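Submission checklist for the structure archive. All mandatory fields must be present; incomplete records are returned to the submitter.

[x] Identifier: Casein kinase 1 gamma C-terminal domain-containing protein
[x] Organism: Anopheles melas
[x] Residue count: 124
[x] Sequence attached
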Amino acid sequence: MFMYFLRGSLPWQGLKADTLKERYQKIGDTKRATPIDVLCDGHPEEFAKYLRYVRRLDFFETPDYDHLRRLFQDLFYFKGYVDDGEFDWTGKTMSTPVGSLQTGHEVVVSPNRERHTPANKRVC
């Protein structure tokens, strides 16, 4: 999921097939065939380490959550970020694909609002 958020798309998105079963088969095949290094290309190595770790887990095996958390905490500090206790989006301007978004004390209106609002619901 986080690779989708980082990349904006995944190699198995939009695959076509004659039946739903075939489509799911193609998706599974593409997921298995896509090397982690390709999936994480251009992003910090910690993302690839995370995926390699979780792919090795047995179905009922409990992950070492402290280890996984440390991967990203160490990356956070290595990149020079400071933990100020606030999320980046708190009180800041954000573009959204649809509608308004309240962040802190500001109201942010998406530049795409008109495109996602039915004509009979638009306010002039």
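[x] Structure attached
Curator remark: The two ends are 38 Å apart (CA to CA). Confidence is low (pLDDT under 50) at residues 105-110.
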